Inverse folding.
């Protein structure tokens, strides 16, 4: 019997489903289709198949068990034109990606990240100070960006940038935002008509090419600026430990120009690439706490029982705070930062009685996984307890929220520790409350390749003035210096 693609909804003549996929919260549309067409279905875009996988089991079988065939990314011409193919998320498997992931992981695996624990604890305290000075949370996103930025820049090139309006931070945030739109297919017209870039400048559609060139210039300037800072510090003999300083020191400054260029791109990815997902997770947490006072109270009781209300949490307290870890798991599930993850089939394949032609785009619908009512009863409800009840057959959100197989997010260990520190410190010091009288019941999300809640809608009230005082003792000088207690773990 001739094998076929998974069945799916009918599209329009020629266009297929092009134009039918909503620009706002597309993950809801993809998930809605799964209710009618089952956990695997096919869409068509201009005649090309797109297979959507909507269950953890099917994604695991394809993206993880067959990751040798499904680790390629769909082509993004706009990414190529703007130089983004030098950053990991846009690379295809090969020596360049292998090397980038190896270097990244060497710096930020669970052991490597220990060198930055103190920086993370200090950044959490800085966030407390910012919130204490703005209890109405009128500049909440700035405060979150500052805390995340301080850690990301410190790890990547050794300097903590405190001002969210700093040009380097602004450029990095803009670039990250642009990259997430490219990944999310905002400029897909170039993928379907890849000849557009070779048309003369005056031709319609070529404005995108000029736009790509300006982003490329911004990317190069950012990479050169940060590497320049590290070189200056090394010359002065005062370079704090960081990814970039470690690369230069390890290679005794004998880097080939191409190796140096690759390392610079990894450094930029390390701080710019992580900022938006971290920001999303922290805002989700604050929003969830504001609308779930019972859950907040339980977490605070757990914190008080361990800290006695007299000291701030540290990374070492993690094992004694299982409910805090459950809150982090529920944050990753409730608003999955990467709701739709794409791959391209490397070769013709057969799976589950279906034929998958070479070049087919496959989409892992992480939103659908997070809403699976069998794994997560009442999936729209915020319920961290679900991870503590060992009798429930439950998939750990760490197994999908960070992606799959050979492309799984290398920022996981950093996220895990930083989010834990920030969540625990905020709850030890503040009560989080809704910003208005009531809070919208329906969860509103926004974004492209990266998803986040529309608005955190919260304010804070000090529950421990004593701990706010402890946070004030952390000053910016402490953050700027490598802490003496940071262990040296590099081989
Ligand atoms: C809440 C935090 C985060 C979440 C939920 C998250 C999620 C993801 C997801 C879903 C992917 C796609 C994986 C795939 O294609 O299978 C990814 C890739 C990636 N993430 Fe994260 N991420 C987070 C934080 C970070 C941080 C802090 C960094 C940097 C320090 C980072 C760096 C990267 C990189 C470089 C890739 C590309 C990997 C590749 O394509 O090989 N992420 N992340």
């Amino acid at each position: 019997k001739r094998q076929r693609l998974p069945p799916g909804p009918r599209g329009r003549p020629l266009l297929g489903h092009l134009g039918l996929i909503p620009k706002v919260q597309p993950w809801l549309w993809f998930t809605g289709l799964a209710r009618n067409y089952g956990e695997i279905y096919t869409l068509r875009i201009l005649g090309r198949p797109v297979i959507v996988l909507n269950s953890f089991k099917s994604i695991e079988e394809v993206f993880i068990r067959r990751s040798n065939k499904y680790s390629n990314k769909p082509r993004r011409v706009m990414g190529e034109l703007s130089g983004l193919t030098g950053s990991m998320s846009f690379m295809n498997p090969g020596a360049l990606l292998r090397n980038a992931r190896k270097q990244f992981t060497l710096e930020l695996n669970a052991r490597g990240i220990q060198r930055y624990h103190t920086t993370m604890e200090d950044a959490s305290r800085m966030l407390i100070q910012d919130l204490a000075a703005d209890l109405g949370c009128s500049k909440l996103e700035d405060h979150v960006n500052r805390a995340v930025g301080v850690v990301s820049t410190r790890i990547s090139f050794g300097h903590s940038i405190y001002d969210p309006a700093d040009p380097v931070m602004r450029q990095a945030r803009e670039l990250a935002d642009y990259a997430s739109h490219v990944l999310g297919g905002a400029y897909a017209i170039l993928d379907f008509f890849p000849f557009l870039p070779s048309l003369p400048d005056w031709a319609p559609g070529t404005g995108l090419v000029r736009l790509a060139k300006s982003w490329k210039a911004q990317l190069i300037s950012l990479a050169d600026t940060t590497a320049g800072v590290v070189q200056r510090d090394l010359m002065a003999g005062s370079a704090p430990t960081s990814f970039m300083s470690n690369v230069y020191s390890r290679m005794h400054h004998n880097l080939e120009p191409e190796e140096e260029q690759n390392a610079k791109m990894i450094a930029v990815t390390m701080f710019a690439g992580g900022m938006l997902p971290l920001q999303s997770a922290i805002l989700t947490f604050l929003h969830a706490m504001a609308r779930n006072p019972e859950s907040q109270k339980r977490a605070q009781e757990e914190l008080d029982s361990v800290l006695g209300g007299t000291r701030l949490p540290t990374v070492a307290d993690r094992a004694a705070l299982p409910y805090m870890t459950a809150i982090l798991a529920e944050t990753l599930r409730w608003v999955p930062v990467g709701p739709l993850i794409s791959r391209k089939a490397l070769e013709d394949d057969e799976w589950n009685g279906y034929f998958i032609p070479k070049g087919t785009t496959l989409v892992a619908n992480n939103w659908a996984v997070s809403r699976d009512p069998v794994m997560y009863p009442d999936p729209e409800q915020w319920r961290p307890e679900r991870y503590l009840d060992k009798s429930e057959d439950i998939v750990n959100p760490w197994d999908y929220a960070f992606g799959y197989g050979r492309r799984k997010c290398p920022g996981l260990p950093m996220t895990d520790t930083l989010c834990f520190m920030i969540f625990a410190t905020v709850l030890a010091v503040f009560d989080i409350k809704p910003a208005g009288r009531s809070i919208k019941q329906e969860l509103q999300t926004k974004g492209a390749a990266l998803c986040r809640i529309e608005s955190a809608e919260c304010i804070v009230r000090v529950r421990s003035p004593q701990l706010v005082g402890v946070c004030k003792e952390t000053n910016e000088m402490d953050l700027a210096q490598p802490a003496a207690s940071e262990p040296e773990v590099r081989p």
In short: Residues 88-89, 101, 269-270, 273-274, 277-278, 281, 337-338, 341, 401-404, 407-411, 414-415 surround protoporphyrin IX containing FE (CB under 6 Å). DSSP finds 17 helices and ten strands in the chain. Confidence is low (pLDDT under 50) at residues 480-491. Strands lie at 40-45, 48-53, 340-344, 349-351, 354-356, 361-365, 430-434, 445-447, 451-453, 458-462.
